[in-house]
Write a structure and sequence with these properties.
The structure holds two protein chains of two kinds.
Chain A lengths: L1 E10 L2 E11 L4 E5 L6 H8 L7 E6 L2 E2 L4 H6 L1 E4 L11 H11 L4 H14 L15 H14 L4 E5 L7 H16 L3 E5 L3 H7 L2 E6 L2 E6 L1 H8 L6 H9 L4 H4 L4
Parallel strand pairs in A: 3-8, 3-9, 6-7, 7-8
Antiparallel strand pairs in A: 1-2, 1-4, 4-5, 9-10
Chain B lengths: L1 H17 L3 H34 L4 H34 L3 H6 L4 H35 L3 H32 L4 H23 L14 H9 L7 H14 L2 H37 L17 H4 L2 H16 L1 H23 L5 H27 L10 H5 L5 H31 L3 H28 L8 H5 L2 H33 L6 H31 L3
Helix pairs in contact in B: 2-3, 2-5, 2-19, 3-5, 3-6, 3-7, 3-9, 5-6, 5-10, 6-9, 6-10, 7-13, 9-10, 12-16, 13-16, 14-16, 14-17, 14-19, 16-17, 17-19, 17-20, 19-20
Classes of the chains: A alpha/beta, B mainly alpha.
Chain lengths: ~250, ~550
């Protein structure tokens, strides 16, 4: 469904992402982990057409993001790390705008927009300008926006940030249901518990390179660590296990 | 603490330059050179004017200093208006305020930091224009570098005093009315004040400088020239300081320059003292959004009938909805209407005696109205791409082409700018009763100028996008804004130059001193086509490529 082939990005002499190869299949939830500055957001930006790769390519449903960006983007929905939206549009208008850009039929929008606002408990705010929305409300609205056009691929950069526990649970359930229906989901997150519970496979990136990729048990085998939880595996693979030495600076 | 805050600005600036890529060095050097070219062009124009004034017997120097006082009064009013527009966003809505307000930094230090930033953005470009003027005075009057140093010493307090008006007004207004509605009042007030200052400049009767016959007797004219121009304003103090420095009266200069600094310190001291008491109340109120429910009927977009493609219609709908909901734009629309009226009023007041002279002015109107359109382009068209701001990801990740976004921005800005261009051309030709040839030529030329200014505005806006600015003035006063304005002014100048040949032949035919030469007309037409093709195609293509590759 989504395929990264030798993907790389350099900024001047700095290599943010190097030779990234990856495939996320239909119905799969792929968790993308890594410490800050590992290159996760850069990867997301290249996958969604916000950045041009220096090397390699991104294939979305067989379409090259660089050569055929419109067809590739049509099949994809993005939740960025910071959900900035037009402050002078209302929630309902934002969804209408997104629906128009992605070619959602007007009759479908009439039905789906109130449903989505209701699902994310935004109905009382649907007519308010987005400048009065909190971070969490904007995050939910952006999620509603991608659900409106029912993409085959979801790319999510920290989708749980700012959500209250109830909304967080709702969003997790939505992702599981979408995956059951065949949607491919690529998700960057720092919340290891979410990755552990939701993701079928997990990739760990550090210094712009994918250092480990596989199911939880495969990662466990790679990490050579006794602990079986993802946190132990992650810290082992990223060198974070020596954090005790860092604490001496406290 | 203020030192720490100011050092971070210095560090940000040097870090930005240190991280320029070779491409950015070349690009900025090329456009910086274009900017210097523009300043040099201005200097040359000022020099010719001042040299001409200096040749006027007896009153040459009086004319020079009267003109200087008027120019400084105009500068003062422009900085005042600009500060009104920048102070609100800089003092109350800057991104870093959340960090600064929760840091153990005194409110007064934060206020000083933000107000100096506001004063800088409100005044640097307007202040820069004074340099070629003062350099022209130095050339004409053979003054040494000491004179320039004297000007540089007296300029900052003058600009600070001008900017303090907008800053003080905004500070008090948000304190007295700490609700979101305050923003609306600020913008409406700023538009009114612009109209008033514009009117004040108009009432200064600059035309009397070149029309002594407008005043009944010589004595009256001389007393007009000698009378102070708004003596209670800092512009007059600076004008006097410059005059005295030129005459070698350094003691008089020092009194005025130190007076300017003392006044700036006094006004800023007052503002800082006031900020300690009122700044936080205004800041707190500014965080509260206005709640007003709107219902959206999911009806077909009216733009759809004209634009066809749904995404194009949606982009236009989004543009107009967000534009008209921002009250800042209402006041600007009012200002533009005022500007058009004052412009046409000034045309009507021109002392033109013959039909030929009227036709000539009608043709030259392409240049002056072109400058007005360029200023509007800088305000509305050039920032259009950057104003997508941090919501840019919505469009960039959507299945639409960058070209479509640029075309929609062009369409949204072309409608009003072409309307204004047509109004200025048609009304001017009607007021001046220009002959048919001139009327058609100037009408067609001005419409093309309007179109090219819009295309260049979107093109340069895409070439220099900045999605993280806090207010529109940072976009206008950026390197890109300067380059765009320079490109527009060169384009308008070349348009006049290229079309001068058919106008000359037309007049020659009217006066019976020559006939039409089809070859000259053909060359002129071809030159005009090439000029417009270059002006429209090059910035558009460069901008599109830059926006597609923007990182």
């Amino acid at each position: 469904m989504i395929k990264l082939e030798g993907l790389g990005k350099t900024f001047g002499s700095y290599a943010a992402v190097t030779d990234l190869n990856l495939e996320v299949r239909p119905g799969e939830i792929f968790g993308f982990l890594g410490p800050n500055g590992a290159g996760k957001t850069t990867t997301v930006k290249m996958m969604t057409g916000l950045l041009k790769p220096t090397t390699g390519r991104v294939l979305v449903g067989g379409r090259d993001m660089t050569l055929d960006p419109i067809a590739a983007k049509l099949a994809m929905g993005l939740v960025p790390d910071e959900p900035f939206v037009y402050p002078k549009l209302t929630g309902a208008e934002y969804l209408r705008f997104v629906g128009e850009l992605y070619g959602v039929r007007l009759e479908d929008m009439r039905k789906r927009v109130p449903e989505l606002l209701d699902m994310f408990e935004l109905t009382p705010w649907g007519g308010e300008l987005l400048e009065s929305y909190s971070h969490g409300m904007r995050q939910k609205l952006v999620l509603a926006g991608i659900l409106l056009h029912e993409p085959k691929i979801l790319v999510l950069d920290e989708p749980m940030v700012g959500l209250d526990p109830k909304s967080g649970r709702l969003v997790k359930d939505i992702f599981l249901k979408l995956a059951e229906r065949g949607t491919a989901i690529f998700m960057c997150t720092h919340v290891l518990e979410i990755a552990e519970k939701l993701c079928h496979r997990i990739g760990i990136m550090i210094g712009g390179k994918m250092i480990a990729c596989g199911t939880l048990s495969e990662l466990h085998a790679q990490s050579k660590k006794e602990g079986k939880d993802l946190e132990s595996i992650f810290l082992s693979l990223t060198g974070g296990a020596e954090y005790a030495t860092l604490l001496k600076h406290l | 603490m203020l030192g720490t805050l100011l050092r971070r600005r210095g560090r940000t600036f040097t870090n930005t330059i240190r991280h320029w890529t070779p491409y950015e060095w070349v690009r900025n050097a090329a456009f910086g050179s274009a900017g210097f070219g523009l300043l040099f062009g201005l200097h040359y124009g000022f020099y010719r004017l001042l040299k001409y004034l200096a040749t006027v017997e007896l009153i040459g120097l009086l004319l020079t200093w009267k003109l200087t006082a008027m120019l400084l009064l105009m500068t003062l009013s422009m900085v005042v208006v600009s500060s009104l527009l920048t102070a609100l966003t800089t003092l109350f809505y800057s991104y870093d305020l959340k960090f600064l307000m929760k840091a153990p930094v005194s409110l007064r230090a934060v206020f000083l930091d933000k107000s100096l930033e506001s004063a800088f953005f409100a005044s640097w470009m307007i202040g820069l224009i004074l340099i070629p003027y003062v350099a022209a005075i130095m050339r004409v009057q053979h003054l040494g570098p000491g004179y320039f140093a004297a000007f540089l010493f007296a300029l900052p307090p003058f600009l600070l005093l001008a900017a303090s008006f907008g800053i003080g007004f905004t500070l008090l207004l948000l304190y007295l009315f700490p609700s979101s509605r305050t923003r609306d009042v600020v913008w409406v007030f700023s538009s009114l004040s612009l109209t008033v200052t514009y009117g004040l400049v108009r009432f200064a009767q600059p035309e009397k400088l070149i029309r002594p016959d407008a005043l009944k007797v010589v004595a009256e004219y001389l007393s007009f020239l000698q009378a102070p121009t708004a003596p209670y304003l800092p512009s007059w103090w600076l004008a006097e300081a410059l005059r005295m420095a030129a005459e070698g009266a350094w003691r008089g200069y020092a009194v005025r320059a130190i007076g300017l600094w003392a006044a700036a310190f006094a006004v800023y001291g007052l503002l800082v003292a006031l900020a300690g008491k009122v700044y936080f109340i205004g800041y707190s109120g500014a965080q509260e959004g206005a709640l007003r429910k709107r219902t959206h009927a999911f009806a077909a977009l009216p733009e759809g009938a004209l634009l066809g493609a749904r995404s194009a219609a949606a982009l236009f709908w989004k543009e107009r909805t967000t534009f008209f909901r921002d009250v800042k734009h209402w006041s600007q629309i009012l200002l533009i209407i005022g500007l058009v009226f004052v412009y046409l009023f000034s045309i009507q007041r021109l002392p033109l005696d013959s039909a030929e002279l009227k036709s000539l002015v009608s043709f030259l109107n392409v240049g002056t109205a072109g400058f007005v359109l360029a200023a509007l382009g800088l305000r509305f068209t050039f920032p259009a791409i950057s104003l997508e701001g941090k919501s840019w990801w919505v469009l960039r990740s959507a299945p639409i082409d960058v070209g479509l976004i640029m075309r929609e921005k062009l369409l949204f800005s072309a409608v009003p700018i072409l309307t204004i261009a047509a109004t200025l051309a048609l009304m001017t030709n009607w007021i001046l009763a220009a002959d048919r040839f001139t009327s058609w030529l100037s009408f067609g030329a001005l419409l093309t100028v309007g179109a090219a200014i819009c295309v260049m505005g979107v093109g340069f806006g895409a070439l220099f996008p900045n999605f993280s600015v806090e207010n529109i003035h940072q976009i206008e006063s950026s390197v890109g804004g300067f380059v765009y304005m320079a490109a527009c002014l060169f384009y308008v100048g070349f348009t006049i130059a290229v079309l001068a040949a058919p106008m000359q032949m037309h007049f020659a035919e009217r006066f019976g001193t020559g006939v039409w030469d089809p070859r000259v007309a053909l060359w002129s037409g071809a030159g005009w086509l090439v000029l417009n093709a270059v002006a429209m195609i090059v910035p558009w293509r460069l901008g599109r490529r830059a926006l597609e590759n923007h990182e």
